[in-house]
Structures are given as C-alpha cells and as structure tokens.
Specification:
This protein is α/β, with parallel strands linked by helices. It has 16 helices and ten strands.
Amino acid sequence: MTLLLTAQEISQAPKVLLHDHNDGGLRPQTMIEMAEESGYTKLPFNDAERLAKWFFEACSEGTLELYLETFEHTISLMQTPEQIIRVARECALDLARDGVVYAEVRGAPELFTRKGLTIDQVIEYTVEGYQQGMAEAKREGFSIRVEGLLCALRHNHFADEVAEKVIQFKGKGIVGFDIAGPEMGFPPTDHIKAFNYLRAQGGHYTIHAGEAAPLESIALAVRECKTERIGHGIRLIDDISFENGEARLGELAQEILDKQIALEMAPTSNLQTGGASSYETHPIGIMKELGFNVTINTDNRLMSKTSMIKEITEISAAHSWDLQDLHDVAENAINSAFISADEIKNILESQIRPGYEKLGA
C-alpha cells in the first residue's frame, strides 16, 4: 500500500477522538516522576523509553485480559488530586498537539478511590485537569475541547451509581457513560438498569462490544441495551460475507449500517489484543467502503505506544486513504459526539471543514 498523504497533512488535519482511556494514556516520564513522589516501587523500569517499550510489548500478547493487567501500574499512580489533575491536564495537551479538536476521554472513577477520594472528587479533579490542559493548549496556539465519559466496569457492580453521576455532572465536563473491562462472561445486559435509567434521563452512552467477544456481544449492546455507539465493534466483520468480490451483510450488520451506529475503532489496540492481524486486514477499511459509520481512535496511547497521528498514518497507508477519507472519518466522529446538535455544527463549521479546506480537501 502507498501513503497518499504527507506527514504535514496528517499532522495538520483536524481530528476527532471518541475512544480514549484516561488511565491508558499516561506519559512514561510522568509515571516515573509520580512514582518517585509517591513511593510507588513497582514500575518495571525507571527509564521512560524502556518503560514505554515494556508497556507496548506487555500489551501485545494477543489477549484483552493480558492487555488489561498492565493498568495496575497506571491506576496506582492516579490516586491523589495532584496525580489525577496532572494526568488529565497532560492528556488534553497531548491530544491538542496531535491535532485533535474535540475529544471524549473516558475513565472508571471507582478505580481512583483507593486513598479515600470520593467518586465525585475523582470526577471533579479529572474535569479540572482537562480544563487546565485546554487552557495550556490554547496558550500554545491549539484549540481543543475535551469532555469526559464515565465508565463502569462490566465485572463490578457500580454501573447504576456511575450512571447517576453522568446525569449529575451533565454539562459540567461529563457527556456520557460506558462499560469497559473484560467482555467474555460479562454481557452488557448485566447493566441494563443503568442503560434504561440513562435513556429516561436523556443521558448518552456507548458500550464496549465486539472487541474480544463474538457477534452476540454487539447484538446485545444494540438490540437489548439500545446503545448509541459501539466501542471497537470489530467482530461485526463476522456478519459480512464476501462472494465474488461482493459483500453480503447479515441482519445485525445491516441494522447497524442502516442506523449508522458509530463504531469506535482503535486499530493498533485491536492488533495487540488479537482482534485483527494487520493494519491491512483491519475491518475499518472495508467497512468504511461499505458506508458504515467508522471512526478512528487511540484507545490507550501508553499501552499501544500510539497517537492519532500514528493511527491515521498506519490506516491511511494500509487502505490508501486520502484527505477526503480523513475528512469523512472526522465528520463521522463529530456527528456521533455526545454534545448538542448546535455544538456539533459549530465545531464542524469553525474547525473541521475550514481545516480540511485549507489542506485542499
């Protein structure tokens, strides 16, 4: 495959990120500094380059379960107000430098209460960090808006409480809900009460589905839980067959195509957890061609040693994407954001479309 885009075009293209985990995006050097400050002695390396390499290699063993084990280190270093604010601030700044103009970054507040913080405090400090990062990015000449999604872990029992926090903090830096964690054995319907509550209260939510579990996980998320977006969803390709070069969609794939349910795909992460074997064979290419509402995301920037620039570079080269393809994916993402139609229109007209027009798209 040939890369049709220049590095400058990829860097300057306005990007929209819907699927990024706050606790999966720490800077390695920040981890080392916070570990020294807090007395945390379990980091495998105290050199940023070696630590970054360790995370990537440890997360590339081919299963979601092993991938998730590495989070013990990052979560352990996000237990104080100062740590939470710093991680969120640096997240917003790093994304802005990557050309992201709008991002929804998620995290499970229950994970950051080990030293006595309440869930409300975790949320407030996280939002404060994003606000600081946005302000710092503005001083550097970047424009980014970062909103938070609150995750519940599918193998725990805090979904109802977290869903209530989404409504409590709606309009205060939080725009939606998600369930994350191991898929196998923990169907999304375990948390149906939370999803029903959110719909009744006008709340938004997405569901991790079809990342490591088969099609049934996606079907339950869409048909039983009425999800607005799907985190990953790569196993949906199993409901599409190809005969003589022609795609034939199964009922579930056709339903998701017809409803234009956004697929929050994260190519590098999917390769690491065994969901795809290469960038060239990742479903995002063919599914975009078929008209699915695909978006491109980072998932966990530390664990995948990635960025939006890297994800776009790899997928653009693998599937011969041009500027119009990038523009399409950015519009897919912003139109699927959990903000109001007027806010979406404003970002489209003030940042995304002018940005691509400037690049010649």
